[in-house]
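Researcher: I'm comparing several assemblies side by side, and this is the next one on my list. It has 328 residues spread over two chains. Same procedure as the others: predict the full complex and return the structure.
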Amino acid sequence: MQNTRKNHKRFFVPRKFFKFSTESQAALEFLSTYAWAFIVIAVTISSLYYFGVFDFGKYLPQTCIFPSQFKCLDFSLKPTEARIKLVNNIGEDVHVTSLQITNDATPPISCTAPATFDWAHETTQDIIFTSCSGGGYIPDVRVELKVSMSYYAVNTPSHPVHVISGKINAKVTSS
Amino acid sequence: MQKSHPAKAQSSLEYLLVVALTFAIIIPTSYLFYNYSKESSQQITDAQVTKLGRSIVDTAETIFYSGQGSKSTLELNMPDNIASAEIIDGKELVFNLTTTFGVSEIVFFSSVNMTTGSNCNANVCSLPQLASSGLKKVKIEAITKDSVSIDVI
């Protein structure tokens, strides 16, 4: 008897605790419901992001931007080549010394640049980068390419080399 | 009379749906307009530089053919993103324009010999005052019978 009473004393739980216990259980369940809701929302948003739903850039128009002195008239991005049609509006005959194409991908796109050439003023020139690979240059994917061109004016005595930069933001065609 | 719980829940849900729909429209639209305006601003800067560069060279040619001692002052509003301005070989007026996709040199060719009052090194004369944005007064003067001086005052 003595022993039983002792045990009872040992496991005696005050009323106050019962009250708190019930409240904390309710609170925990409430938070658990919210946690589930957060998990479901996070998974849904992650899935949508993974499938490119939030990539709003694809809704922008395809553009080819160069300085007006070498205006971009047309362009096309084929699976292994990038073509740009520029016009020489600078008012002088120039000699193009180098052309480069790159992008922000790691590793960046790699293409074979055209050879150097002379370019008379007020004429157009098709610039063709061949054997393009890497840098996410894949058919049906939208890419942003940075093109730079170095040239000098033929009639300037010391032939100082100038650089212009342009940008193409477009989708690579599948054929 | 107090509103019942389902009615409150419905109004809350409707409110949340309206807010969600508003966000779903505003966020993509803002992104698209921001990108579009960014590209437009680069084209505007290019157009501004082209206009003022052409204006400097045209005035230099006019002043040169007006004879020694002739001068004129241009008030030019320089845009942002111009890193430097220089005259090379007395023939090329070059503006270095910084864009999001690299540096572009906008070059203007003159049929008359251009120079600056100072800051000349070999065949390159720089115009550092033109490399900042804002309103600039550019004095163009036929200092000799062979050349026209371009200075920011």
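Model: For your comparison table: Chain B touches chain A through 28 residues (CB under 8 Å).
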